[in-house]
Specification:
alpha/beta, 5 domains, eight-stranded mixed barrel, seven-stranded mixed β-sheet, 36 strands, transmembrane, transmembrane helix
Amino acid sequence: MAWFSPIGKRNPAVLRRAAGGLFVAAAIVFASLSGFLRTVDDRLAELRFQTQSIAPTGDVVLVDIDARSLAKIGVWPWPRRLHGDLLRAAERAGAARVAFDIDFSTVSTPEQDRAFAAALAETRIETFLASFVQADTVAGRTVRASFPIELLLQNSWPAGVNVPVDGDGQVRRFPFAIDANGETLTSMPSLLADREAGPGLLGIDYAIAAERLPRVSYVDLLRDRVAPESLAGKTLIVGASAIELRDLFDVPVSGIVSGSTVIALATESLLQERALTFLATPWFVLAGMAFIVFACAVRLSSRYAIAALVGLAVTAEMLALYLQNGHAIVLETAAIHVLLAACSIWVLFREFGLRRVRLWIARTQAANSQSVLERVLDDGFHGVAILNERLQVTRINREALDLLGLESANRLDELPAQIGQHVADIVAAFERGEGAGKPAVHVLHFATGAERVVEYSIVPFWLSGFADRPGETSGDIVYATLTLRDITERQKAHDHIRFMALHDSLTGLGNRRALEQALENILSGPTPDGGVALVSFDLDRFKAVNDALGHAIGDEVLKETARRAQETLVAALLIARTGGDEFTAVVPAASLQTARFLAASLVEAICEPFFLSGHRIGVGTSVGISWWDGQAATVTSLMRHADVALYRAKQSITEQVVAFEPFMDGDRLERLKLEEDLTQAFENNEFRVVYQPQFCLSSGKIVGAEALVRWQHPERGFVSPVDFIPVAEEMGLIHRLGGWVLDTACREAKGWPLPIKIAVNVSAIQFETGDLVAAVRQALDLSGLPPERLELEITESAFVEESDGLKAIFDELLAIGVSLALDDFGTGYSSLGYLHRFPISKIKIDRSFVMDILTSNRAIAVVHSIMALADGLGIPTIAEGIETPEQAAMLRLSGCDDGQGYLFARPIEGQAVVEMMAGPSLAAPTMLAAAG
């Protein structure tokens, strides 16, 4: 140090220059060791690629295993015979070569491998199969070559497909050849471009437009959907492009591409003589350049030195662009740019000095921060105003002025009164050490009548003050920021959402949630005079109207019902739609009798005909009332009582309005117990099937039997089907019960000595919502019963939902071979249309007509009409409920074919049916006696 100090003291410029040289050298070394130079060189090369777009030769065509091909073929890995079929399709199209970027290193199935090998041998296309080198141990210290199986290599060439990946994860080079266990394996691009294998890597020119490479889908080529002229004489590369197959690589310019695309671009680079050569700047050249640049920078002024350095950088980059685009040479210029940048920094330090540079940087940062804040303030989505310690508006942006409807604002009192007072209160509280307030909402009313909802927040903060006038002292001062935003639309949306949450979208009435809230408010408030009636009502026959005339008309009926309810129940606190056609009103009334009167008025209003879209529609209603007079009650109990009363009203024949009474809860509980017992009946095997024989009224011979379900409960005893079948239908158990009856009846009938028909009743609900066809097929398959012996008895209610779906079910049943009987004919929705549109094979006369046939002329007329209709259509008839010989004789004389009833036999067990068949006819003597 002794020899250096005198020089430094005599000539400080020498020290500055030496320090500058060391700084430049250190910058280059650091940039190199940190990988910065490599990153910059790669980025610059990519930018140069983007300055031109080179068209592919068109000699290389990609055959993509894409998502569409995967979807069409359906499995993966594909059977190897498909690749053989692809080779044959390529040969038919005239392709010259086919390269498969697919792993064939393991054996598939013998027949699949032989099929692919046969195609390789039979086609005259030069074929290349992918080979690669991979780690052979977990540690990866040894490698092994993976070649296609020997059977496939007999008529194909192995081609290397290994690619090196750079440190940033991108692929920029492709080997000419790879070392495969001591042997040289030529890479696929080298083979496809007819280049000799050699050491080293070829640089891929990504100026060649990857998106312009010719492509066809694998499945299109496989099925000959590609024009032959587009493939004639071409090289095909078959590879995976579907994302799910994960054969993807990151490359410059194009981003993520398939492995086959990388191979195609490398091949194109060789075919177009565009294989890139990477030329790094030698260190001695860089050192010499650094010396010259540094020497010139020392002798030139800072302005000219900076200009010269920038000019050198531009010149170097233009030279690199020329070499890369014109001669496929990638000149690595990052070191040159780092050198020039370091020299520029040294020149600036020399010009300004360290302190001045720091001051300049600080001022620049402050100015930039101020500019950013001003820009944020002026261009922000929110309105902002800043107030000083005197509550004067020092800054307010245009958004705030527009929100408040002002042209300008300099004082607090120019702001809306509520907001201004709120600002003053918050600032005063802040000065006292209290916390800041929460955001508030203010509704602005303008002279035009418009309204705007503004949400605003006030945030006070301390600033360090200073004395800027004589007599003033410095100290902390309070500023405040007022932030405003327009939430008018949000408030409208919130109000709309709240409305939708509490209202029915179709009728505009309240919904169940609104009803519950209203009842909660009533129960928690003062007891009203008299009381409150919860009036629940629904529409009768609405489903039939909805299905017959369509949902649009059904919606109009609901809206008109809501309107009539509002007009009738004017005093209602709330009317809500609680279900499809169910409504509930909360009505204050002086007494329960008054509530009954209002409910009766409602029934009268709704029962008036509806005239909608040219239709005259009649619907009825049933009403249930739950009365509350201030006694202890809950929302749940009131609503439940109204539902129970409504259920009673719907079940009643005479009463359309029913008020809840305590004993009804017992009926409700009994119904729930019946539902529970019905569910358990399946588990406890409490159901059984009995049969009522059917006889020919002329010969007295047994011709069939009707299967009837019976329920023997351990505590209830015998439960009538009239009681439990409707419950099973409502619970959805009818499908399970009906299927069980079908299975049992078919199984037992299969063992009977005579091949008579077995009739099984089918609920209309089984047609509407169940899979009746599947249940019938199952019963026939399990039992082995011939389909022609099974007869399904259906009631006319099944035809209310007449539709294409219903006809399709009938067609399927008819195709199976079963027959269909129309049960209880004449008691339901009778229509001659059903008889000729649907394949009815038998008409069953209801017992109500049989019972009165000896005493009622009307019953006789109905029976004669049915007989005439059946005779005209060629449909047999059967009468049920025959109890006397005289009834049987009258029916036989009227033309009825068959009959059943207590006259012949009560419902009996299956074994009894077998015994009856084995004995003499029981009906013939009775019938003959009656006839005599």
